[in-house]
Amino acid sequence: MQPEHIIIHPEVAPYVAHIQLNRPKELNALNLQLMGELRDALKALDADDSVRVIVLSGNEKAFAAGADIKQMAGKSAIDMYTTDQFSTWDTIKKTKKPIIAAVSGFALGGGCELMMLCDMIVASETARFGQPEIKLGVMPGAGGTQRLTRAVGKALAMEMVLTGRFITAQEALQAGLINRVVPVELYLQEAVKLAKEAAAMSPLALKMAKEAVLKAFDTTLEEGLHFERKNFYLLFAGEDQKEGMQAFIEKRAPVFTGK
Ligand code: CO8
Q1: Does domain 6-199 have CATH number 3.90.226.10?
Q2: Which residues cross the membrane (predicted)?
Q3: Among 23, 26, 33, 71, which is best to mutate for testing ligand 1, by the most ligand atoms less than 8 A from CB?
Q4: Which of 18, 161, 195, 221 is the most exposed place for a label (fewest CB within 10 A)?
């Protein structure tokens, strides 16, 4: 069945697929259906050998303005527990291939949290980031107190989470939340360019390197170093390591296959 709230562009560059959140009238508010479609699309692309890197965007006005408030407003705690909508997020988190967020306009609440699940973030000058849940009488529920704090530090995270203040793209760049800021007409192009650069690398190395970087947030330095070393050694089981090193010696460009 075709998804309704996302658009999948299969090959926007070699080995790069693009998923676009597509509920423009609602500023891409993340309802259950959209999140389910996104989970399924990411799972399929993660298993597709013709894809090495995924770009995730909204539109110029909004990456996503958060969880769908209208869908959530009347729910009870038991509804929330039974629906367990955050379990979708656990599956999304397991995507092995790098995901690059292309962000313009609002990235708020769950939208900011979804963006922080991505591995690199390209923003337009018009991007605004925030965790405004506090203004709704709640608080972030999908990583806003954890990933944001790890990315920007306690001072700014507390300010954003406790007052709901939005920050600009320049502030986000300075705080280390995002990778780069470009004029609005270029944000998607720049994200695809970055994706293309990564997609030229060994797909196995990409996955294992992503896994190892993320490990840094979950573990002690000693365990992280151990994990990193294991992944490094493991890559010597693949043909891409032979190809990459032989290509260097022969002074030519490597051709990686992921085998
Ligand atoms: N949910 C539902 N509808 C929304 C949302 C949203 N989060 N954001 C905007 N919309 C709708 C508006 O209701 C409006 O619809 P309508 O035309 O039918 O009234 C339409 O989108 C356009 O919005 P506005 O008219 O408000 O546009 P403005 O340009 O005036 O304002 C803002 C833009 C500032 C972004 C404003 O819309 C706003 O404040 N939105 C809510 C932002 C917010 O509070 N986000 C946090 C939501 S809670 C959350 O994310 C919890 C995370 C938990 C994990 C996530 C699980 C999926």
Answers
A1: yes
A2: none
A3: 26
A4: 221
